[in-house]
Specification:
CATH class of the largest domain: Mainly Alpha
Order of helices and strands: HHHHHHHHEE
Helix content: 55-70%
CATH architecture of the largest domain: Orthogonal Bundle
Strand order of the largest sheet: 1-2
Number of domains: 2
CATH superfamily of the largest domain: Winged helix-like DNA-binding domain superfamily/Winged helix DNA-binding domain
Largest sheet: 2 strands, antiparallel
Radius of gyration: 20 Å
């Protein structure tokens, strides 16, 4: 226990100031202290799983990046430029941010498509199971999922342009001129 608390204390001394600055640069200055506390709560819970002290700092920084992504998912600040997201995050984090936008926009789909797309995209339910759950035919569910996904795509592309890597991961996001874009 003493060794664990010494590791945490050393991490706090080394990383608390840079992490606080990272949270502020990421657009969460007013939440920086809360995010820092949450970050170290997660460190305390999981530090026993990290055996290599050389990787502790990178592990803590990954926790911090995930917290920022979660904070962005809860609601981006009005006027915050989307372009900064690509510079601030690694590709895996950008995928999470854009995934959060998709989850939010599913709730804005017409009712006809919303539940089928939500079950398929967010909960990973098979289309056959969705058909049974909603009392629809399998072709009807396939059509609703396809049409709903098409509406989501159109909605996102009207707001932002995306650049993808060869595996389909998001590597860059740029806001279009639309002032109503709420990404």
């Amino acid at each position: 226990m003493i060794a664990v608390s010494h590791r945490i204390e050393a991490l706090w001394e080394e990383l608390s100031r840079p992490l606080r600055a990272f949270f502020a640069r990421a657009g969460h200055a007013e939440e920086a202290e809360d995010l820092l506390q949450e970050c170290f709560l997660r460190v305390v819970r999981g530090i026993d799983d990290v055996q290599d002290d050389d990787r502790l700092a990178a592990w803590v920084q990954r926790i911090a990046r995930n917290l920022v992504v979660d904070a962005h998912r809860r609601g981006r600040r009005p006027g915050e430029p989307v372009e900064e997201l690509a510079a601030e995050y690694h590709a895996e984090d950008l995928n999470r941010v854009v995934g959060g936008w998709i989850a939010d926009r599913i709730h804005g789909l017409p009712e006809r498509y919303r539940e089928a797309v939500r079950l398929y995209e967010l909960e990973g339910v098979a289309q056959r199971a969705i058909a049974e759950r909603l009392g629809l035919s399998l072709p009807a569910v396939k059509s609703r999922v396809q049409r709903g996904r098409s509406l989501l795509r159109s909605d996102l592309l009207a707001c932002c342009s995306f650049e993808f890597d060869r595996t389909g991961g998001v590597v860059d996001v740029r806001r279009r001129a639309d002032p109503d874009c709420d990404c």
